[in-house]
Amino acid sequence: MTNGAARLAAAHDVVRRAQQGDVEAFASLYRAHGPAVFSLVRRMLGDERAARDLVQDVFVRAWERLASFRGDSAFGTWLHRLAANLVVETLRAARRDVLRFTDDDADTTPATRSDTDAIDARLDLDAALVGLAAGARAVFVLHDLEGYSHEEIAQMTGIAAGTARAQLWRARRHLMKRLDP
């Protein structure tokens, strides 16, 4: 057995043990995949504190749905999809709440920044992402950073694939303006 095959077999074993209720095996999965999930969630939300909270929700949901993981894809891929779906659900709920309590479309109002923050945003993609509307940010992260197709994004978010393309174009245009010196 090659080194790669041995690692793959060990990873499958950890997932199988976690599916059988082994809390230590699940903790191992959390340690292995937590940083990547946090990075995805933080980029999609644009808020570190909210991302930390949501990562916990992602792993709670993963624990609850672990039996549904069949191994057709890598565990990390399954977990990323679960995280992206949970972020999209959270963004939808937040948007519904905003629309209930205000007449303004808060989703299109960029966050204000001090001059120092604006300079940092030009140098830092994560900071620049915060200035995007939530929908455009989610589409950008899912497409350009995570590699999902427009059709997959449309299915995950409940928007048309053409809308996802338009949001991606807007996001890229905004980011180019923010990141161009």
From TrEMBL:
Database matches in Pfam families: Sigma70_r2, Sigma70_r4_2
Biological-process GO terms, alphabetical: DNA-templated transcription initiation
InterPro entries to which the protein is assigned, alphabetical: RNA_pol_sigma-70-like, RNA_pol_sigma-70_dom, RNA_pol_sigma70_r2, RNA_pol_sigma70_r4_t2, RNA_pol_sigma_r2, RNA_pol_sigma_r3/r4-like, WH-like_DNA-bd_sf
Annotated ranges, domain RNA polymerase sigma-70 region: 29-96
Residues in RNA polymerase sigma factor 70 region 4 type domain copies: 123-175
Superkingdom assignment: Bacteria
A GO MF term: sigma factor activity
Entry's family note: Belongs to the sigma-70 factor family. ECF subfamily.
Protein name: RNA polymerase sigma factor, sigma-70 family
